[in-house]
User: What shape does this take?
Amino acid sequence: MPFLPPTAHSLKETAIGGLGIVARPGYVCHDAVQSGAIQQVLPGWIASDLTLTALMPYRQGLLPSVRAFVDPLAADLPEAARI
Assistant: This one.
């Protein structure tokens, strides 16, 4: 079987299955915490900030598909971080 690196979803499912503790952003686990499927182990502890950087050409050579991918991320990630 090939090795598959952990993803946000697979790590959350691991915690829901009772197989360990994970550190995931609030927006990834918010619904599972609200439903009681998992619980916060260290209340008040918050991981350090994360910087996400997208490097892309300025104007010339920028594919519309890249802009269509990056613009919603830039708009939605700050909101997701407040959950």
User: Anything to note?
Assistant: The two ends are 36 Å apart (CA to CA). Residues 8-81 form one domain. The chain has a mean pLDDT of 79.
